[in-house]
Amino acid sequence: MIKLLILMGMLATSFSNLAWAGGLVTATVAQVNQEQMTAVEGVVEAIKGSLIASQVSGNITALPVKVGDHVKAGQLLARIDTRMATQQAMTNQAQVVAAQAQLVVARQEYERKRRLHEKQYISQAALERAESDYKIAEAQTKAQLAQTGMASVQTGLHTINAPYDGVVAEVMVEQGDMAMPGKPLFSVYDPKELRVVVNVPQSQIASIKSGEAFKVVISSAIEAERNLTGTQITILPTADLVSHMVKVRVALPKNLASVSPGMFARAMLPVTQSSAQAQIYVPARVVVKRSELSAVYVVDSQGRPHLRQVRLGRKQGDNIEVFAGLQPGEKVAIDPIAAANFQN
Fold first, then answer.
1. Torsion angle, CA of 3/8/11/14, rounded to 10 degrees?
2. Which of 139, 145, 160, 165 lies at 20 to 30 Å from 223 by C-alpha?
3. Which one of 1.10.10, 1.10.3470, 1.25.40, 1.10.287 gives the CATH number of domain 83-155?
4. What pTM was estimated for this model as a whole?
């Protein structure tokens, strides 16, 4: 976008804009062609991340992993005491055996009374009672089998395994602690697929162009992974009720070695031509702050500095946006201390 920038004397391309005014080093507010980008800040997060909790209660008897470990899908993360579950499974199995024995007796009794009824030795009511006893025994056997199967499942839940290949980001318990249903034990994420989540003012959402190249700067990454590019942008459909910001997800290249969730990132998102507006950015070091006042020293044609109040916007890198108080062509003092001590 077209931006109005203070051209810094420290940049080799901007030396011609520096001037001396009555002993003060100044820079001229100038108009420079910039890419149609808007800078937003955010953090790196994993596309696939999980909080792993137990579904059963019990003491943790084994905890073979620690923070930072790379785990494979199905690898043991923790084991919970299974003694009570094992005893319950054995009890249920014994009850199944007893129910099956009762079912055999009830079936035999029903068959015997059916034959007697065919010979008209017993009444219809006696046959129906025998049939009812048989069906009750059959239902009880099925119920005991279901309970036994549930107990077997419960026993399996005492072993907690990794759901996918990933990295253990956090271990929230120690061996010997009590695991409770729903209480998180581990945080695991897949390091192969990451993204940056940034907050964009809702007024700028309509101007973001999806499908076009964007830039992401992660200053704490290694040199080869510090400046990244991509095209996949996802704009979430809702805005925050308090800040009125909209979350935008920016996909990163896969298999980054030095990037991990939680890192600070700055994204340069492409915007439409209609959203490009003239802006003034000054180096943050030229701004003077006194209580709630923000100002810069503007140098007039006679070389005299005058403190002028400005209205500031967002900071981007070493520069800060100026909404009001400066015009293109004006000169500002690079060193506000020297300007404050200036003697004409």
1. 70
2. 165
3. 1.10.287
4. 0.58
